[in-house]
Amino acid sequence: MTYQQLLVELKNNILYITINRPQKLNALNKEVLTELAHAVATAQTNKQVNAILLTGAGEKAFVAGADISEFQNYNSAEGKQLAKHGHDHVFDAIENSSKPIIAAINGFALGGGLELAMACHIRIASENAKLGLPEVTLGLIPGYGGTQRLAQLVGKGLAFEMIFTADMITAEKAQQIGLVNHVVAQADLLAKADEILEKIKLRAPLALASAVKAVNAGFNPKLNGYQTEIEEFGNCFNTNDFKEGTAAFLEKRKAKFNGS
Ligand code: COA
C-alpha cells in the first residue's frame, strides 16, 4: 500500500508511523484509519520490525480526534459500524500488537486521538500536550475504546470526571494520574521514545509478544490473565530466544535474539 496520510519509515528495526494531516490536526478520517490498520497489520509479520513508534505530524497535535466532518450525518447503525470497525481494525489491533507500540504525544490528543494513544502500550508526552475526551460536547461518548481504556489507566472516578467535564488536562497532570509515562520538552520527545525503543529492541521478541498477551488478558473479561500468563510463560520455554537468553547469561555475554 502506498500511504497518502501516513509517513512510514523503518529505521534500525523500529517502524516510525507519523499521521500526516497537520492542517486538520491529524484528525482520524477513514483514509488515516485504513492506512493505520494496514501499517500495524503488516508490521506484525515483518521480521525487521521490533517495535513501533506512533506520532502526529507538526508541533500542534498528536491527533485532535476522529474527523467530525465524516460522521456528522450518521445514524445509529452507521455510528455502531464506525465504532466496531475502528475497534476491530485499529484500536484493538494496536493494543494486541505483538510488537510494542509507543505513542509520542506531541500536542493535542483529543477524543479518538487520546483513544489511539491509550491503545498503545506506552505513552510519552511533550510538555505542550493537552489530553482529553471531549465527545460529550458533540452529543457523543468516546467510541474507540475510551470509556474502557481511560478507566483502566486512571481509575473509574477520574475517567468519569474527564468524560463528563470534557476538560483537557495538561501533560504534567496526565503523568500524575498515570495516563502518560513520561513528559519531556517537545524537542526531546522522539529522543525519549528512541531511548525506550532501543532497550525494547534488545529484548526477546517472542517474550515481548507473550507479555502483551498476558497483560492484556487481565483486562479482557473473556480471558483469565493468570491462566494466560501461565500458558505464555510455558510457551517461552519452546523458543530459541529462551535458549539464547539463558545461555548468554551463563556464558556472561549479551544475548542476541532472533525472534524464533
Ligand atoms: N475533526 C475534523 N477536523 C478537525 C478536528 C476534528 N476532530 N480537529 C481539528 N480539525 C480541523 C479544524 O476544523 C480546522 O480545519 P480548517 O482550518 O479547515 O477550519 C483545523 O483542523 C485546525 O483546527 P482549529 O480548530 O482551527 O485549531 P485551534 O487551534 O483553533 O483549536 C482544537 C484546536 C484541538 C481545540 C480544536 O481543533 C478542536 O476542538 N478540535 C476538535 C476536538 C474534538 O472534539 N475531538 C473529538 C472528536 S470525536
Structural account:
By secondary structure, the chain is of the alpha/beta class. It is built from 11 helices and 10 strands. The strands form 2 sheets. A 6-stranded mixed sheet has the order 1-2-3-5-7-10, with helices on both faces. Helix 5 (146-154) packs across helix 6. The chain is globular and about 60 Å long. The model has no long low-confidence stretch (mean pLDDT 98). Bound molecules: coenzyme A.
Topology:
Elements: E1 6-11, E2 14-19, H1 30-44, E3 51-56, E4 61-63, H2 68-71, H3 76-95, E5 101-105, E6 108-110, H4 112-119, E7 122-126, E8 130-132, H5 146-154, H6 156-165, E9 169-170, H7 171-176, E10 182-184, H8 189-201, H9 205-217, H10 225-236, H11 240-250
Parallel strand pairs: 2-3, 3-5, 4-6, 5-7, 6-8, 7-10
Antiparallel strand pairs: 1-2, 8-9
Largest sheet: 6 strands, mixed
Q: Using only CA atoms, what is the Rg?
A: 19 Å
* CATH class descriptor name of the largest domain: Alpha Beta
**Cross-sheet strand order for the largest sheet:** 1-2-3-5-7-10
SS summary, helix count: 11
Tell me the count of domains.
2
Order of helices and strands: EEHEEHHEEHEEHHEHEHHHH
